[in-house]
Amino acid sequence: MSEGVRDCETFGKHWPIAIYILLVYLIFYLKTNLRCCCFCYFSEQHENISQEEVVGLGKEVQDRTQGFRRYLPLAVGSVVGLLMLLTPLAFVLLPAVLWPDRLEACGAACEGLFLSISFKLLILLVAVWALFLRPSRARLPRVCVYRAFLITLTLLLTMSYWLFFGVRILDPQDEDYHGIVQFAVSLVDSQLFIHYLAVVLLELRHIKPCYSVCVIRSTDGETRHYNIGQLSIQKAALTILEYYYRDFPLHNPALLSASKHRAAKHLAGLKVYNVDGAQPGNGNPSRAMVTASAKRKDSAHNELYYEEADYERRVRKRRARLVVAVEEAFTHVRRMKKEDERATPSDIMDVREAALAVFPSMARALQKYLRTTRRQHCHSMESIQKHLAFCLINNMSPKAFLETYLSPGPTLQYGPERWMADQWTLVSEASVTSGLKDGSEFLLRCLDFNLAVTVKSIPYIRVTEEFIDPKSHKFLLLLQSETSV
Amino acid sequence: MSQNFVPGQPVSVVTQRIEIQKLQHGDHLILGFSIGGGIDQDPSQNPFSEDKADKGIYVTRISAGGPADVAGLRMGDKIMQVNGWDMTMMTHDQARKRLTKKKENVVRLLVTRKSLEDAVKHSMCSYPKQIQAKPGFKD
User: Fold this and answer.
1) Which of A16, A141, A266, A317 supports an S-S bond with A42, CB 3.0-4.6 Å?
2) What pTM does this model have?
3) B23 to chain A: nearest residue by CA?
4) A484 → chain B, closest CA residue
5) Could you tell me which chain A residue has the CA closest to the CA of B30?
């Protein structure tokens, strides 16, 4: 009987430890499991899974878990935040609820600590909301290592404090209330310091530029250089994509057909038959064919030169007609002034009607120009009319209206059907959660083009100083005069 | 002039004596050429000198048909002496004053130019054994 009681007591003493160990095991299991899920579905490192399978898998899972995956970080953040918020309150309230008669009275210093706890908790709440509880702006293939580390650290901290509270305060029902409140304050302080660590790891490290990346688009060779801080490869890919949507001109597959035709012509020259028994016309350009087609290249560069000169002239002619048509169209419409209020009501229009009235006189010239530069699919009639209305409202000149159509703008300028924001795949030889290093390379693949990214570290710059005395600036006058005698 | 010019050290060059009669032009006497250079001027801008550290007085322009042209002065000549006065270490203004003294009607110049040096060298080359016997011309 006494042994049974003693067993119960032993179990009662050690239940917090058991729960603690279980929780730690659960956290690590979850972390590895999440990573495994993502690894299988969204990374490209397994060569034995074929490309189609992976893309197909990704698309299926994507459709099913669209809403779930986007809000998972938010849910986890809310749960952890709530836990962090309620634990100090529990530490303070539980003794007052469970053994109020044995508790020492709370003096002035102790009540001052209540004030401190409440303000610190408020600051912590706002800080956690600002940093963690934002809707995520992207979905990356793997869980961010630093976030997982911070969540684990927070949970470990909270579990340790609960363990200590359970063993040393709840069990013996400690009467020193001042000490208990100080214990709760120390927990809030530790949570604030963990938040500071989170700010340093997640935000400050990314700001100071450390690496210079070179981004090249594979289809037309557009190159840009950016300075970014110490990020993991997937976060760097995200930053680069955000810059891509801002800086790179819209990808236009219609402009690439000319070089493809030339390439096809190079290969389609002569047919070579091998009479020594191999299959005729097997398609690989043999050496004889290459040398024979090399002789035809003498005319190929000539063709290219004249074709390009002709294209330039056509574009310039169309552009001149367009500029004249737009300028003329803009002279027909004028903002209504005070003295025009007496004009006939049929002449007064709002901006949409004005745009509709002015548009036909320039529509033809604009359409012809866009056809010549092969950008007619980027601009629909409604978008042109909307842009015209916008320019009329803001008193823009005809040149300002035309700028949108004369050169291809950044991808974000066009409608969402051109963004292809959910088609990006990160192809990398190193693990995507590892940090950027000097010389690392990875590829961002979209449907018809790739962005090749190479990383170089910013050099270690040594600056020496040289002091110049302001009085040391002295000058000589050097003449060379000629006198006639 | 082909040697490196070191100020203060003796120079040995081949010179030519030129005597110019001053011409009355209005109420002053002119010689018909322009000078450039001097120790207070910038020697690197001198187009006629071989050694750009040479701060001597050079003839920069000759008026055609003037007294200097008639006497045989050529553009690019370096003036070594004027009436016995040394011209190699003179300021521009002092040189001008030496040449335009109102009391003198004639100026006797010692000038040097590269073609003189070359001519002497050519004549010396055909008699190689006599080079040591004949020291360079000094004036």
Assistant:
1) A141
2) 0.67
3) A485
4) B34
5) A485
Nearest Cα to A222, choosing from A203, A198, A243? A243
Closest CA of chain B from A473, distance in Å: 20
| A476 min Cα distance to partner chain B (Å) | 10
- Which amino acid would we find at residue B36? G
Question: Is residue A56 within a helix (H) or strand (E), and if so which, with residue range?
Answer: helix A51-64
Q: Given an 8 Å threshold on Cβ–Cβ distance, is A482 in contact with B96?
A: no
CB within 8 Å: A478 and B92: no
Residue type present at position A203: E
d(CA A248, CA A414): 12
Are A482 and B34 in contact (CB < 8 Å)? yes
CB within 8 A of A223, min separation 6: which ones? Answer: A214, A215, A216, A217
Task: Kindly state the tokens that stand for A145.
Answer: 């290592």
Q: CA distances (Å), B76 to each of A52, B36, B47, B49, B59, in order?
A: 86, 10, 8, 8, 5
Which helix (H) or strand (E) is A211 found in, with range? strand A211-217
Rounded to whole angstroms, how far apart are CA atoms B57 and B88? Answer: 7
Q: Do A485 and B40 touch (CB under 8 A)?
A: no
Q: Are B46 and A480 within 8 A, CB to CB?
A: yes
Q: Which residue has the tokens 């191999």?
A: A278
For tokens 């050694």, name the residue: B51
- A485 → closest Cβ in B33, B40, B46: B33
